[in-house]
Specification:
The complex is a heterodimer of chains A (436) and B (326). With 436 residues, chain A is of the alpha/beta class. Chain A folds into two domains: 103 residues, Urease, subunit C, domain 1, CATH 2.30.40.10; 305 residues, Metal-dependent hydrolases (TIM Barrel). In chain A, 28% of the residues lie in helices and 23% in strands. The longest helix of chain A has 17 residues. Chain A is globular, with a radius of gyration of 21 Å. With 326 residues, chain B is α/β, with parallel strands linked by helices. Chain B folds into two domains: 144 residues, Rossmann fold (3-Layer(aba) Sandwich); 148 residues, 3-Layer(aba) Sandwich (Rossmann fold). In chain B, helix 6 links the parallel strand 3 and strand 4. The chains are: A alpha/beta (436), B alpha/beta (326). Chains A and B meet through helix 5 of A and helix 6 of B.
Chain lengths: 436, 326
C-alpha cells in the first residue's frame, strides 16, 4: 500500500531467489525470483535470475519458502494514544512485523478519539518515527464515537483516514448511518460497521445453553443480522460503500452474500477466532475468550469458515485488541473484550488451507489484495509497486505461547494451540523489518 | 461451572474430595449423597440440647458478602458459631470495589488474614470461582450472580428428603424468574443428578435460552407445568424486574405465575411448597398459602440451611483438622 512521504532512503537492489511466488492479485503461483530496487518491486517471475544473480545485487535465498505481498491487517487496536500500558504503536509494530504484516489500520477508539485531523496526523507521525510497519488509521464516523454528529469526513480523508468506523460501537441511529453512507460517497470512502444492534447486544457471551449454565447474559445471533440487514437497506438507498467488520454469524454472512449478488457495494471481514473457536472456549468463565461480537456456536463457526471458502468474506483481519491483566482478571461480565492477534494472524488463517478447504492464493487474497482493494491501497507483486513483502514457510508447525508474544498484552485464548505456518522475513519498502 | 476437581492430598474429607464448594454442577451423585447424609446428621442435632460444639474451635470463617443478604449470611454465621469457629462478617459495597480495589486485591488481603474457610457471595457469575483461584483456603460459594448457590440446592434437597423420603423419581416444578436465578440452576443440577424430573415454569421473558439442555422440561403455562408435581419450588422475583422490563406488572405476574390454591390444585394433592426466601407475598406466592404449615416447607428450609452449612464447613475443614493437632 502507499504510504505518506518522508520515508527514509531505501536500500539498493535485493534479489529474492528460490522462492514460491504467490501473488493473489495476478493469480501467480510459481517458483521464481523477485527483485526489489529501492522501495519498489523492480521485477519478478519464474525466469528471473535463471542464470544466477548478477554481481552487486544483494541476494536473499528463500529456500523454497513462499514469497507474497505483505499482509494488510485492516482492523487493529493500537491503544496509543491513551492506553500505552496495554500497547503502543511501537510494540504493535514489532508484533506486526513478526506476524508478516506490512500495513495495518487502527481503529479510532483511542484516548483521545481519532475524530479530527490532529488525531490522524498523530498516528501518521508516530508511524513515521517507528520506520517499521505502515500504520494507518480510520476516522470516527461520529464525534466522540457518540453516534450523533458526523465527523469532518472529507478533511479526515484528505489527511489520510482510510475509512470511517465507530470502532467497537455500532452506529446505532439509522438516520445517522444513512447520512454517513450518503455523505461518504463524495469522497468514495468506506463506512465500517460493528455489526450489533446495541439493545440486543447487552449480554456478555453468545446466547445459548452455555450462557444459561454459566448464568451469563447472552447476545442472540439476531443482534448481528438485524444491524446488517438494516444497513443494507441504507446502502441501497444511498449508494455508500459499506463494510461489515468481524462477522460472526451465518445469518449475517447470508445477508451479505445476497447483497453482493444484488450488486451492492458491500464487503466484510472476519477474524481468525471466529472461524477457529466457538463459544465453548469460554469454558469456565475464561475472559481471554471474551470478544465483541462474542464467539458463537459451532454452526456459526462453520458458517464463517464457509463464507471464507466461498469468497463471501473479503478479508481476514487480526482484530488485534490488547488488554492487560487488570482488564481481563475480572468476573466475566466485567472483563474487557478482545484478543491479541497480530502475531498469529497468518498461522491461524492458514488452517483452512491445510484442511484443504481453501487454496493458498485464495486465502492470501483475504490477507492482502482484497482488504487493500477495499481501502483503495496497492498490494501485489507488481512492478513499480511498493516492495512490501512477506517470506513464510506455510508448513512449519509450532505451538502458540502467548507469554512469548512481543505485543505488550498477552490476552489470547490460543495457549497450546498447534498451528502451521511461520513468517521468515517481513519487508517494508524494500527494507527487512523482521528476519526470523 | 463445577467445583474444583483437584482432589485434596488428604482423604479425611471422605466422600467429598474437593477443596471448595463452588457449585453443584460437576458433582457426582455419590458426592451429593455424602453431603446430604452429613447434613442430615446435623439436622438431627437439637441445637438447644447439644449447644455449641468445639469442632472448629480455633478456626476462622470469613463471610465475604459483596451483595446484601441477611438470611444467607446469618445462616452461615450461625452454622460456623455452632461449630465453635471464629466468624468474621465482611460486607463490601461492590460499587466501592469497582472504583478501586479489585476482587483480586481483596482476595490477597484476606489470604493474609489466614482464614480457614471463606464464604463468598457476589453479584457476578463466576466471581467466586475467580476468587477461589487466588486464595489458599477453602471457599464456599454463597451465591454468584445467576450462576449457582450450592448450599441452597443442598438445603432444598434435604428438606424434600425429610418431607417426602427421597428425591429419585419425584416431579419437581421450579417456577418464576429462572433467567436470573442461581437457586434454580443449583436445584436443577442437584435434582437431575439425583434422578428427579425437573420442570421449569416461567414467562418466556424470564426463561433462559435452551434451558432444556440442562435436562429439564420448560413450561410457560403454570397449570400445565404444575400438573402432577410432587414439589413446587417458587423463586423470588426482583422488584426492578416486575415493572415493565421483564413482566408488565406485579398484578399481571401474580395473576399468571403467582402460586395460589387454585393453581396449586393442579399439582399432586399433597405437593410440597417451597421458597428460598425472602418472599414477596402477593407477587410470586399467596400469603396464606405460604403460612400453611401442612403444605409449605419454607420454615423447614431455613432450619435445614443451618444444618447443610454446618456440614459443609465441617467437611471442607477436615483435611485441615486431621493435619493439625487440635
Amino acid at each position: 500500500m502507499q504510504r505518506p512521504p518522508a520515508r527514509p532512503v531505501a536500500p539498493g537492489r535485493v534479489a529474492y531467489v528460490n522462492a514460491r511466488l504467490l501473488d493473489p492479485a495476478s493469480g501467480l503461483d510459481a517458483p521464481g525470483a523477485l527483485l526489489t530496487e529501492g522501495a519498489e518491486i523492480a521485477d519478478r517471475g519464474p525466469e528471473l535470475f535463471k542464470d544466477g544473480v548478477p554481481e552487486g545485487i544483494e541476494t536473499v535465498d528463500c529456500g523454497g519458502a513462499c514469497l507474497a505481498p505483505g499482509l494488510v491487517d485492516m482492523r487493529v487496536q493500537l491503544r496509543e494514544p491513551g492506553e500505552e500500558h496495554k500497547e503502543t504503536i511501537s510494540t504493535a509494530s514489532r508484533a506486526a512485523a513478526i506476524g508478516g504484516v506490512t500495513s495495518m489500520v487502527a481503529l479510532p477508539n483511542t484516548e483521545p478519539i481519532v475524530d479530527d485531523v490532529a488525531g490522524v496526523e498523530f498516528v501518521a507521525r508516530r508511524a513515521r518515527e517507528e520506520k517499521s510497519v505502515k500504520v494507518y488509521t480510520y476516522g470516527a464516523v461520529t464525534r466522540g464515537l457518540e453516534g450523533h454528529e458526523l465527523t469532518e469526513m472529507g478533511l479526515l480523508t484528505a489527511y489520510g483516514a482510510l475509512g470511517f468506523t465507530d470502532g467497537l460501537k455500532a452506529v446505532a441511529d439509522a438516520q445517522v448511518m444513512r447520512r454517513a453512507l450518503a455523505y461518504s460517497t463524495i469522497f468514495d470512502t468506506v463506512i465500517l460497521q460493528h455489526p450489533e444492534e446495541p439493545s440486543l447486544a447487552r449480554g456478555v457471551m453468545n446466547s445459548g445453553a452455555l450462557a444459561t449454565r454459566l448464568g451469563l447474559s447472552g447476545i442472540p445471533v439476531q443482534a448481528e443480522v438485524i444491524m446488517v440487514e438494516r444497513d443494507l437497506r441504507l446502502v441501497e438507498m444511498t449508494g455508500g460503500r459499506y463494510h461489515v467488520s468481524h462477522v460472526s454469524t451465518g445469518a449475517a454472512i447470508e445477508a451479505i452474500r445476497g447483497a453482493k449478488k444484488r450488486g451492492l457495494p458491500v464487503s466484510c471481514d472476519t477474524a481468525p477466532h471466529y472461524f477457529t473457536l466457538n463459544e465453548n472456549s469460554v469454558g469456565d468463565y475464561r475472559t481471554f475468550a471474551k470478544v465483541s461480537p462474542p464467539l458463537r456456536s459451532e454452526d456459526d463457526r462453520k458458517a464463517v469458515a464457509e463464507g471464507l471458502a466461498d469468497g463471501t468474506i473479503d478479508a481476514i483481519a487480526s482484530d488485534h485488541a490488547p488488554q492487560d491483566q487488570d482488564a481481563k482478571r475480572l468476573p466475566f461480565a466485567l472483563a474487557e473484550p478482545g484478543i491479541v492477534g497480530l502475531e498469529t494472524l497468518l498461522a491461524l488463517s492458514l488452517a483452512p488451507v491445510h484442511a484443504g478447504r481453501m487454496g493458498l492464493l485464495e486465502l492470501l487474497a483475504c490477507l492482502t489484495s482484497r482488504p487493500a482493494a477495499i481501502l483503495k491501497g496497492r498490494s501485489g507483486l507488481t512492478r513499480g509497486w511498493p516492495a512490501d513483502l512477506v517470506v513464510f514457510d506455510a508448513e512449519k508447525p509450532w505451538t502458540i505461547d502467548p507469554d512469548r508474544f512481543t505485543s505488550k498484552s498477552k490476552n489470547a485464548p490460543f495457549e497450546g494451540h498447534m498451528v502451521q505456518g511461520r513468517v521468515l522475513r517481513t519487508v517494508v519498502d524494500g527494507r527487512p523489518i523482521f528476519v526470523a | 461451572m463445577s467445583s474444583s476437581k483437584t482432589p485434596t492430598q488428604n482423604s479425611a474429607s471422605g466422600g467429598y474430595p474437593h477443596r471448595h464448594l463452588l457449585g453443584i454442577e460437576g458433582l457426582s451423585q455419590s458426592e451429593i449423597v455424602f453431603l446430604l447424609d452429613e447434613a442430615a446428621e446435623y439436622a438431627d442435632l437439637d441445637p438447644h440440647r447439644h449447644g455449641r460444639n468445639a469442632l472448629l474451635a480455633g478456626h476462622t470463617v470469613i463471610n465475604l458478602f459483596f451483595e446484601n443478604s441477611t438470611r444467607t449470611r446469618t445462616s452461615f454465621e450461625l452454622a460456623a458459631k455452632r461449630l465453635g469457629a471464629d466468624v468474621i462478617n465482611m460486607s463490601v459495597a461492590w460499587s466501592s470495589i469497582k472504583k478501586g480495589e479489585t476482587l483480586i486485591d481483596t482476595a490477597m488481603t484476606l489470604t493474609a488474614m489466614h482464614p480457614d474457610v471463606l464464604v463468598v457471595r457476589h453479584p457476578d457469575s463466576g466471581a467466586v470461582k475467580l476468587l477461589s483461584e487466588k486464595v489458599d483456603c477453602a471457599v464456599i460459594n454463597g451465591g454468584d450472580g445467576a450462576h449457582e448457590h450450592p448450599t441452597q440446592g443442598l438445603l432444598d434437597a434435604l428438606t424434600i428428603i425429610r418431607r417426602l423420603g427421597k428425591l429419585e423419581g419425584l416431579k419437581v416444578a421450579v417456577c418464576g424468574d429462572i433467567l436470573h436465578s442461581r437457586v434454580a440452576r443449583s436445584n436443577i443440577h442437584l435434582l437431575t443428578a439425583m434422578g428427579a424430573r425437573v420442570r421449569v415454569i416461567a414467562p418466556p421473558t424470564l426463561m433462559p435460552g435452551r434451558v432444556e439442555e440442562l435436562g429439564v422440561e420448560a413450561f410457560t403455562d403454570m397449570r400445565e407445568g404444575l400438573a402432577g408435581c410432587d414439589v413446587v419450588m417458587m423463586l423470588r422475583l426482583q422488584t426492578e424486574r416486575m415493572q415493565g422490563s421483564y413482566v408488565p406488572s406485579i398484578r399481571e405476574y401474580f395473576h399468571f405465575y403467582g402460586l395460589d390454591r387454585e393453581k396449586l390444585a393442579h399439582a399432586k394433592p399433597d405437593a410440597l411448597v417451597m421458597h428460598p426466601g425472602p418472599m414477596n407475598r402477593g407477587v410470586e406466592i399467596d400469603s396464606e398459602l405460604a403460612d400453611d404449615i401442612d403444605r409449605s416447607a419454607i420454615r423447614e428450609q431455613v432450619e435445614m440451611g443451618v444444618a447443610v452449612r454446618m456440614a459443609c464447613l465441617d467437611i471442607l475443614t477436615r483435611p485441615l483438622r486431621t493435619g493439625r493437632r487440635r
